[in-house]
Amino acid sequence: MSQRRLRSRDWFFEKEYYAFARRAYLRSEGFNADIFEDKPIIGIANSWSELNHCNRHLREVAEAVKRGVWKAGGVPLEFPTISLGEPFIKPTSMLLRNLMAMDVEECIRAYPLDGVVLLCGCDKTTPAQLMGAASVDVPAIVVPGGPALASHWKNQKLGSGTDTRKLYDLHRMGRITEEEWCELEGAVARSAGHCMVMGTASTMTSLAEALGMTLPGAASIPAPDSRRLAIAERSGVRIVEMVNEELRPSRIMSRAAFENAMITLMALGGSTNAVIHLVAIAGRLGIQLKLEEFDRISRRTPWLANIKPSGEFLMEDFFYAGGLPALMKEILPLLNGDCLTANGKTIAENYATAPCYNRDVIRPLEAPLASEGGIAVLYGNLCPRGAVIKQTAASPHLLRHRGRAFVFERYEQMKELIDRDDLPVEENTILVMKNCGPIGGPGFPEWGHIPMPKVLLERGVQDVVRISDARMSGTSFGTVVLHVAPESAVGGPLAAVETGDEILLDVPNRKLELLVAPEEIERRLAAFTPPAPHYRRGYGKLFLDHVTQADEGCDFDFLRPAPTPA
User: Fold this and answer.
1) What are the distances in angstroms from CA 146 to CA 10, 252, 304?
2) Cα angle for residues 249, 252, 256 (degrees, 5° grid)
């Protein structure tokens, strides 16, 4: 036995019968006895599922990881976790993100693992695995599955979610036939991997790298590319070294590392969902991130990545241009360069010489796409605890806007009315939707990208201001205010909005105001009656009883340690 103490020894060499039984049962899988000779046991947490198309290739990725673990002298043991494919789960996979985080945490805690490799990809799988691993604080490394290849249809290069939403509007108006729509259905997702735009999946795997939890360059490689398997194998080698070095998540994901992730988020023009996830991951480490920090960083971080939905290109183009390493080199003067990463080197050491091959895709720091980052945080009497907007994907003429509200009390009502030819809306109308937050949804669904009313599309209106306490897909676009906190279902000010009320949106000055007399707002909220709970048993009830609001990361209150000082 060496001097280092392996965690797995407590399972296999306790002075009791069960230590013998565990060794015997593992040997029943065909292993020889030498696997217990002071070799680290490496768990591979695999979120593969046939009900998650983004992660359907992770079995092959796991095999590549195993090659690396064996090569480095470790013993790889793969285990499944919940897999959250956003399109397949109703009402939303966000309802189950915390459940997956608990699953990952408890598996790592319960199994005889000295280190763990986290295989992820689709939106919630990355933050859930990071949350779980942070809570246990066993050496861990992330291996993302990578983005899918670009879609092609009728000589158009399409990004899933972003372009298909635009085409769906044409289909609603009868400008795309049923036959063409069917053809598009078979063409838009042509490989394994997550959305090939800078949606939540691409954003969160990029931020896992910015936090230091992957090997450099791991986030950007397309899923079908052979280099995806090569970096998975290298990650398998590296996790064994991390065990020997006792390099744990808490040493990597420091407050300074989260600042790096926020800076990277803004430079990417990334998903608004990343705000919630970063707050939740940091919270598991006792680090309190506030919305004001995101906005302060956004004001001083330029937007550099010209990727849909904010920009023009796709993730495949981003990779060929140099990927996240090229972007990290550009923003290195803004980053905390001495932060430690999973390969044992600092951020500065990893990215100082990363080349960029296409300045149309990744702009230089001195010639950005915009002087501010992708996300702005709003405050006002309509959102006293904050709201967010992806300003890089909004219509510039609507960033300062005053209009009258048309209110949908619930998502189902919006679906019933949105295509009506007599819907009383015009281009200055502000669409407001209630009861879509963590409690009201339930689960904080991606309903915030309220479809454009058909009557306005027919008039050539492409965008209006939309406000809700929901999230929206990171692939979405438009002048959409999200995450209004506190949400309407718990009596937040959004509950007081009525059709015809005037609302002021002023993104440059970070304001969102309901232009109604304060005493009238108070009168309406005094008469507020909360909706009946969606669940009275099981995990759903646990969620409703313990989930925090959007500005607090929507984690469970009992899973967060006391915050450490800033």
Assistant:
1) 36, 22, 21
2) 130
Three-state secondary-structure class, residue 49: coil
DSSP H helices, 321-462, are 323-331, 347-351, 411-417, 454-458
Tens-place pLDDT, residues 396-426: 999 999 999 999 999 999 999 999 999 999 9
Please report, as a single letter, which amino acid is at residue 293: E
Q: Specify the DSSP class assigned to residue 532.
A: P
Q: Which domains, from first to last, does the chain contain?
A: 39-149+191-351 (3.40.50.2300), 151-185 (no CATH), 376-551 (3.50.30.80)
Q: In this predicted model, what pLDDT tens digit does every residue of 285-313 receive, in sequence order?
A: 999 999 999 999 999 999 999 999 999 99
Sequence-ordered alpha helix ranges (H) in 381-470: 411-417, 454-458
* pLDDT confidence of residue 3: 53
Q: What is the token pair recorded at 364?
A: 């230089």
Other beta carbons within 10 angstroms of residue 175's beta carbon come to 11
CB 355 within 8 A of CB 311: no
Q: Place 562 in a pLDDT band, splitting at 50, 70 and 90.
A: confident
Q: Residue 398 and residue 401: Cα distance in Å, rounded? A: 5
Q: How wide is the angle at C-alpha 504 spanned by C-alphas 499 and 507, nearest 5°?
A: 135
Angstrom distance (rounded) from CA 248 to CA 329: 25
Find the mean pLDDT for residues 342-363: 98
Six-digit token string for 125: 């799988």
CA distance 314 to 53: 19
Is the pTM value of this prediction over 0.70?
yes
Q: What are phi and psi of 310, to 5 degrees?
A: -75, -35
Torsional class of 507: left (φ above 0), alpha (ψ -120 to 50), beta (otherwise)? alpha
Mean pLDDT value across residues 61-79: 98
SS3 at position 127: helix
φ, ψ dihedrals at 423, nearest 5°: -60, 125
Q: What is the DSSP letter of 446?
A: S
Q: How far apart are CA 297 and CA 355, in angstroms?
A: 25
